[in-house]
UniProtKB/TrEMBL annotation:
SUPFAM superfamilies: lambda repressor-like DNA-binding domains. It holds the Pfam family DUF5753. Coiled coil: none annotated. The lineage of its organism: Bacteria, Bacillati, Actinomycetota, Actinomycetes, Actinopolysporales. InterPro entries: Cro/C1-type_HTH, DUF5753, Lambda_DNA-bd_dom_sf. This is Transcriptional regulator with XRE-family HTH domain. Residues 97-275 form the DUF5753 domain. It comes from Haloactinomyces albus. GO terms for molecular function: DNA binding.
Length: 283
């Protein structure tokens, strides 16, 4: 398992949830066991909060956990309460986004569809700087630098850990000139360079493709190693995020992503379009 306390907590929570359901207990009964709110039980099962040894033991005893179940829970709990690397950048990662960064760090494959912008994992520093400035006028330079460092570390960890990255972008993402022609030209050059890496694939949906199943709805799919947790889909707004981990939802997002790839240009043709867009910035 990749070292990510968020992923470990999610796997731990998933295991506890499965034990609860198998025992025929609801979240209200689990909450009564720990003398806490149902909200806390849901947060434990979604991996949003750490758990204490006494809490885990009480739940396992009530759920009738076998020795094998108990060993698995104790194994998953190791490292689950540690701080994630992103927590050292205080204030730079919104609380609602921290869970995603932790899960992303543990993913074996990241599939993302973007409508208007180059995905954060592929942004140059200048491009990201321009975005942060445009969306947060007046933000202190120190906070901007912290956000840029988080983005850079996310990129470096992705490349170091060898996770597969599959990107589908609308043509709008490569045509929208963020930060001026020179910044955008540099960004397109990076996309062309990074596409040469074996674990990165980039496709562009041209304007000519018209409407499609995800028109206007960017999302990310995270697939984890078998021993970590089930796949999930992630969507976000300006101030919050949603995690879709019901199998039916994951299947819908997966099917949609497959359809997007089918209507998008091939990686080679996508590269040609990006190269054309870069050349037009020079004229």
């Amino acid at each position: 398992m990749k070292e990510s306390p968020t992923a470990r907590r999610r796997a731990l929570g998933q295991a506890l949830r499965e034990l609860r359901i198998a025992a025929g207990k609801n979240t209200a009964e689990a909450a009564a066991l720990l003398e806490c709110s149902e909200s806390k039980i849901r947060k434990i099962e979604y991996g949003d909060v750490p758990t204490k040894v006494a809490e885990r033991n009480a739940l396992m005893a009530a759920y009738g956990a076998t020795e094998e179940d108990t060993a698995e829970i104790h194994s998953l709990a190791k490292g689950a309460n540690q701080r994630g690397w992103w927590q050292s950048y205080r204030g730079a990662v919104p609380r609602w986004f921290q869970r995603f960064v932790g899960l992303e760090s543990a993913a074996a494959e990241i599939r993302t569809y973007e409508v208007e912008l180059v995905p954060g994992l592929l942004q140059t520093e200048s491009y990201a700087h321009a975005l942060i400035n445009s969306g947060n006028p007046g933000m202190p330079q120190s906070e901007i630098e912290s956000r840029l460092k988080v983005r850079t570390e996310r990129q470096e960890r992705l490349l170091k850990d060898g996770a597969r990255l599959v990107v589908v972008m609308s043509e709008a993402a490569i045509r929208r000139v963020v930060g001026g022609p020179s910044v955008m030209s540099e960004q397109l050059t990076l996309l062309l360079d990074i596409q040469q890496q074996a674990e990165v694939e980039i496709q562009v949906i041209p304007y000519a493709a018209g409407a499609h199943p995800a028109t206007g709805f960017p999302f990310v799919l995270l697939r984890f190693p078998d021993d970590v947790a089930p796949s999930l889909a992630y969507t976000e707004s300006l101030t919050s995020a949603a995690y879709h981990d019901r199998q039916a939802d994951v299947d819908t997002y997966t099917l949609t992503f497959d359809r997007l790839r089918a209507i998008a240009l091939s990686p080679a043709d996508s590269a040609a379009l990006m190269r054309q867009a870069a050349e037009e910035l020079q004229t």
